[in-house]
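Students often ask what a holo structure prediction actually looks like on paper. The answer is less mysterious than it sounds. You provide the chain, you provide the ligand, and the output is a string of discrete structure tokens encoding the 3D arrangement of the protein together with zinc ion.
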Amino acid sequence: MPRPPLYISREDLGWSATSPAAYADPKSGLVVHYDGSDQGLVNGDLDDFLDYWQRTRDFHTGPSRNWRDVGYSFAATPQGHVVEGRGLHREQAAQPGGNTTHYSVTLGLGPGETPTDDQINAVRWLRQWLMEDHGVSGKVLGHRDFIATSCPGDRAYALVKDGTFTQAPGAISTEGDNPLIGLREGDGKATGKKEEVIAVQRLGTFAGFGSYLAPYGCDGEWGPATSEMMLALRHSVGSSVTNASSITGTAYAHLIQAVAIAEARKLIAGGGGGGALPATAEISGTVKLKGA
Ligand SMILES: [Zn+2]
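The corresponding structure tokens follow.
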């Protein structure tokens, strides 16, 4: 296959066509990196990312790093572009232990940011191109597979581990999955998850725990109050978790269970929660009452 469909070369960036870094022929796979601090690029546009890429190169070639070029082979943008760094057949600097054996791609995200679907696909296109045209293994690793580091962040690393990056470009495997699962404290507008957080907050409110969100209400920002709400809600259905700052599968089940209980209480209390229920209901059978 030719280059990935959205490809920005060094020449497009105004850089020398070939990186001054030493020659290498990485064959063992592709390593995913991130930035380490939230850059806000998920909600930005391509120009924001290209500005970031230039700043990163300036930093890497400046006094604090003194590298010969930007440290990575490539970047994958939230808009779906593969951007050249050192490019093909060059040694890298950002992944000691794998600088000559594996190519590198950074997402430019921080720990509170989730790779976009387009960005995941950019990594997939890059991987496919390296495999088909350059004889590189299809293996995808995270920086933390080489050394003790937070890189590439828990979110991207989960995608490394579950095989999301090693699928063919196209539909994202998480499509059709529950969009609430995986939400966590810190999510909101800045991470592109405002509507999803509102859904959690509204469900918690329907379950009777809306007072925890005062005074902001269902604002779509998951801060400590939303975690407190989830903790109280989960305890109410018998859970003994001590940390409820994310929506795991079990947390999601508890959320739905708590809403169902609240609705059932409304029905029992005759509150008309179901709207169309009859005013009276008949129950047959035997009821034995014990004295108090
Ligand atoms: Zn890294």
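The pocket of zinc ion is lined by residues 33, 94, 143, 151 (CB under 6 Å).
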